[in-house]
Amino acid sequence: MKFQQQQSQKQQQTQKLAMTQQLQQSIQILQYNTEELLTFVESEALENPLIEVRAPKLQSDLMKSQSPASQDNQTIQIPDVQISLFEYVMNQIHLNYRDTFLRKIVLVLAESLDLNGYLRVDEAEVKAQLQASDIQFLDGLTLLQQLDPAGVGARSLQECLMLQTERDDNAPELAYLILEEAFEAIANRQFQQIAKKYQLSLPEVQNILDYIRSLDPFPGASFGDNQAEFIIPDLTLMRDGEKLNVVSNRRGQLKVNFQTKYFERLSKEADEETLQYLKEKQQRFQWLEKTLGQRQDTILTVGEIIVERQKDFFLNQSGALKPLQLKEIAEIAGVHESTISRAVNGKYIETDFGTFELRQFFVNKVNNEDSSADGIKLKIKEMIDQEDKNKPLSDQKLVELLANDGEKLSRRTVAKYRENLKIPSSAKRKRFD
């Protein structure tokens, strides 16, 4: 009796393991883009003679930003994620910022980015060309530097590392300040001097330096020129006046068919071992067909929610996107945030004014570009004029004080405004008399 119970337990454990493997594959399938999915399904077909794969036909010409209705049911293709840094930055500008004078400044600055992501431009020349004030130029530069990849738009290595540190919530507490005030000491490996100045132990300094070494000095280098790799949009946006409808782009999706006649013919003549093999392959096909359907349903659901939340953009594409996070979509869809992440990476939606990757519609809230920079600068100057000179206000403290006053700015923006006012850093303002 005990032996039978042990045998039963062993069988249950085996079934649980098999289910876990299928679950892992289902998660991978959701994450695959069209090309990766095709590779996976074709590998399944090689191992399963009962599966027939009908892959979409890729066309050699590039048809980007054309109306789906005008293409007579042809499959729209766009380059895979291997796009240039310039294109990546330009897409973000058009998606995030409204058509204002500040966006014009950002666009001009983006044209002067080198392949490593650094800004190589004569600032005086740009100001004269656009007839922009110092404040307007600074605001435009700040908007550029808020884009991805972190560090883009930097004018020096020091600024590049500071931009990355500012956006990293896990950065060591004093990393930004040390980069700002002791960059030359870092370069000259004056570790004891840094430790003494910031009242740190040498191991703490070493930890900060290790972090700084982990930053990317060439944030744009990972991008390349467009390659002749194409993908097919997963979704299509149909627009009828103010009504928006998202549908699966099934005409371009790969399809799997079960070879029923072949299965029936082999089953009639099969021995017990062969019959068991055929049933296993049939079950594998059923799982694959179901998983592919669930994948497309998940992408469609996520696409519908995104379009609803970003409705203003799709109705008037010149507008900026609203702040949107993965967590919000996950709560609406009733799934885990990681599922949403997998469902948007490498998945595209075609519209009558362009084709976009779903993940591009997730944006963090940026500084209000319509805020009065002059007014904010005046507040900063007043705060610094009234500070205790023995304990001057750091840029982070200024951020907190401004937030209490209803002005939400990043530390880097406050630092830029302070620099524009020609006010030195807190360390240089400190007096001991």
TrEMBL record:
Every copy of the RNA polymerase sigma factor 54 core-binding domain together lies at 81-262
RNA polymerase sigma factor 54 DNA-binding domain boundaries: 276-431
Q: Offer one Pfam family short name for this entry.
A: Sigma54_CBD
Specify the superkingdom.
Bacteria
Could you list this entry's UniProt keywords, alphabetically sorted: DNA-binding, DNA-directed RNA polymerase, Nucleotidyltransferase, Sigma factor, Transcription, Transcription regulation, Transferase
**Entry similarity comment:** Belongs to the sigma-54 factor family.
Which NCBIfam families does this entry report, sorted A to Z?
rpoN_sigma
Kindly provide the name given to this protein in its UniProt entry: RNA polymerase factor sigma-54
Q: Which organism is it from?
A: Enterococcus alishanensis
Its gene name is rpoN
